[in-house]
Amino acid sequence: MVERTAMPQPTAAGVCFVYEDNIYLFGGRDSFSTNHNDLWAYSTTTDTWRKVPTHVPLKARVSASACVVGDCAYLGLGFDGKVQRDSSYLCDFWQYNFKTLKWKRLADFPANTTVKNCLFSTEDAIYATYGFNREFTQDVYRYDIEKNTWEKLSVSASSNVPRAMDIVGATCQERHFVGTGFNHGSLRFWAEWLPQEHKFVPRQKILGAGRNAAACCATPDYVYLAGGRHYGDTLTTGFFYNSIQRYSPQHDQWEYVGSMPYEAENMVIAYINEQLFIGLGENKEGIIQDKWYRFEE
């Protein structure tokens, strides 16, 4: 690990996405448990953070979702409060144009299962998978970019691909993967989403015990999984992770490749310019982190 410039605002449960030479970070909560709607950009060339100088029309939130298609970021959803009420689950969905620096509100997400949906994108559509509101799901919604419409898909169920919350996923080699998470316990499952067939196919499970609230991203060859927590039913059987493992779609195989200097959940990880960056999150003492690293195997 090579330590880089710390994030000016310690953050957990934010969402990150990549465009050109910058890693963008939206939302999350700080050390005072205050949710934010700030949009930050980290430059890999100058090793600096800056707050994007544009009015962000989204409400403050945690556990939002985002992806990039062309010159636009698509982001929204998430959770805005501590109280478990339906209005805290946010359904708004937005487009941010990197060229014009303009925001545009799109069609609202058609359900309130809006915590940590994993987004997969193609040229003409975005798939929002899983999500959570009071019950575990395995839902998939398709957003048509041109028509600005959402459609709930009929998904073929598999006994080896459970309903869950707090999942992660990434697209690697034009294949879409999702897994881990929580369902009455931390999960090890890993599956591939097949858009043409509307189904999840089980793949090799992750290494070690189950984990949720992990960080995940893809490089051209691998999907990386870092951090997170294992829930063990009691305070003495649960623990946090600092390990990093990666998945090869070509071989359907996982391997350990390193570790973080600290254990944490709700971190972020991003791949850009042939480099992996990872950090932030919340440790087992509840301390929100500002640390930022470049990962070197």
A few lines on this structure:
With 297 residues, this protein is mainly beta.
Supply Rg.
Answer: 18 Å
CATH superfamily: Kelch-type beta propeller
Our count of helices gives 0
Going by helix content, strand content and strand pairing, the class is mainly beta
What distance separates the N and C termini? 8 Å
Main beta sheet? 4 strands, antiparallel
Mean model confidence by pLDDT: 94
Strand line-up across the major sheet: 1-26-25-24
The low-pLDDT segments are none
Number of strands: 26
Overall CATH class: Mainly Beta
Assembly of the depicted chains: single chain
What are the salient characteristics of this protein?
39% strand, four-stranded antiparallel beta sheet, mainly beta, 26 strands, 297 residues, Neuraminidase
Task: Write structural notes for this entry.
- This protein is an all-beta fold and 297 residues long.
- It has a single domain, classed as 6 Propeller (Neuraminidase), CATH 2.120.10.80.
- 0% of the residues lie in helices and 39% in strands.
- It has no helices and 26 strands.
- It has strands spanning 2-3, 15-19, 22-26, 39-43, 48-51, 65-69, 72-76, 93-97, 102-105, 118-121, 125-129, 140-144, 149-152, 168-172, 175-179, 190-194, 199-202, 215-218, 223-226, 229-230, 239-240, 243-248, 253-259, 268-272, 275-279, 292-295.
- It has a 4-stranded antiparallel β-sheet with strand order 1-26-25-24, with no helix packed on it. Strands 2-3-4-5 form a 4-stranded antiparallel β-sheet, with no helix packed on it.
- The termini are close together.
- The model has no long low-confidence stretch (mean pLDDT 94).
